[in-house]
Amino acid sequence: MQSMLAYLAPLALLVPFGTSGDFAFGSDSGEANLDPRQVELMSGPSSKIPRTSSSDTVLPPDVSYQVRIEGRVTVRIVPRSRAPRQNLMAGIDESRDPVRYEEGNNAECVSINDIAGVQTGSGNRLVLYLRDQSMISARLEKSCRARDFYSGFYVERQEDGNICINRDKLLSRAGAKCEVSRMRELIPATS
Questions:
Q1: Which of 4, 102, 179, 187 has the fewest CB neighbours in a 10 Å radius?
Q2: By the 8 A CB rule, do 90 and 50 touch?
Q3: Are strands 162-164 and 109-111 parallel, antiparallel or unpaired?
Q4: Is the pTM of this model over 0.85?
């Protein structure tokens, strides 16, 4: 018996209450004869609906809509571009020894705006080239390899605009996601 009521309940909602002619769809003018209060209720939430305390009229509560906008900025750091040679013979007369660098002071954070490029180093180290011609060695967590970052990386910009150790994760274009565990300045070695 209860299952029969479950099937008939939706049909009962379709049948209009009362047969006094207030709600007639088959009128000659082609329009429904509706009470003005019913028209306002059918048109949706509106500030024009009067609030009454009578027991025969129950109005729905006002609906308030909220919009939440979230902004997220992802920055791409590209590999360091090599300056094109002026001519093909420019590199032949250079017989200097390459400059060796050693790690200097620790750096906690570096500004994203100061980074001009990146290059892979050995093992799990990246070399960050800064706009002021200095370099920083960034060591990634142990399970990461620097060669995954051969084409640069993405980093989500924080509120302070910095990349900091033990906080920010670098996302390579190959899909690796690694945290920066240590940063140190690179300075030319004195021989």
A1: 4
A2: no
A3: antiparallel
A4: no
Tokens coding 144: 């990461």
Under 8 Å CB-to-CB from 152, ≥6 apart: which residues? 76, 77, 78, 79, 118, 172, 173
- Mean pLDDT across 142-158: 90
In 100-161, where do the E strands start and end? Answer: 101-106, 109-111, 115-120, 125-130, 135-140, 153-156
Which residue matches tokens 């009454």? 52
Mean pLDDT on 146-161: 90
Which tokens go with 113? 């705006």
Q: Are 112 and 155 in contact (CB under 8 A)?
A: yes
Q: What is the pLDDT of residue 103?
A: 86
Extract the runs of DSSP E, i.e. beta strands, from 40-122.
Answer: 74-77, 101-106, 109-111, 115-120
Taking CA atoms, 176 is separated from 87, 143, 145, 181, in Å, by 38, 10, 9, 15
Residue 44 is predicted with a pLDDT of 52
pLDDT tens digits, one per residue of 156-171: 988 899 999 999 999 9
- 23 or 144, which is more confident: 144
Say if residues 146 and 122 touch (Cβ distance below 8 Å).
Answer: yes
Residues 6+ apart with CB under 8 A from 176: 144, 145, 148, 149
